[in-house]
Write a structure and sequence with these properties.
Layout: H1 5-15, H2 17-37, H3 44-74
Helix pairs in contact: 1-2, 2-3
Length: about 80
């Protein structure tokens, strides 16, 4: 039986320090991004910061997905 994506991520949160750290950083940048996006009017500086945060979040997500892929490859039967 194959683990679902959510089950696998939950397992990695408990067992993989690198994954846990990346997820923590991703959540921090998500919160920062939500704070900017909740403003009624964005300044050019806000828009630049929004783009910067989105790129960081994407990089972190890519790193997390790479860990998931490595885990799956190592545990294929």
């Amino acid at each position: 039986m194959e683990n679902t994506q959510e089950e696998l991520r939950a397992h990695l949160m408990q067992t993989d320090e690198e994954f846990r750290q990346l997820a923590s950083e991703h959540a921090k940048y998500h919160d920062m991004l939500e704070a900017i996006e909740s403003k009624e009017h964005l300044t050019p500086a806000d828009e630049a910061e929004e783009q910067r945060l989105k790129k960081i979040k994407l990089r972190l997500k890519d790193q997390m997905n790479a860990i998931v892929s490595r885990y799956r490859a190592a545990h294929v039967h």
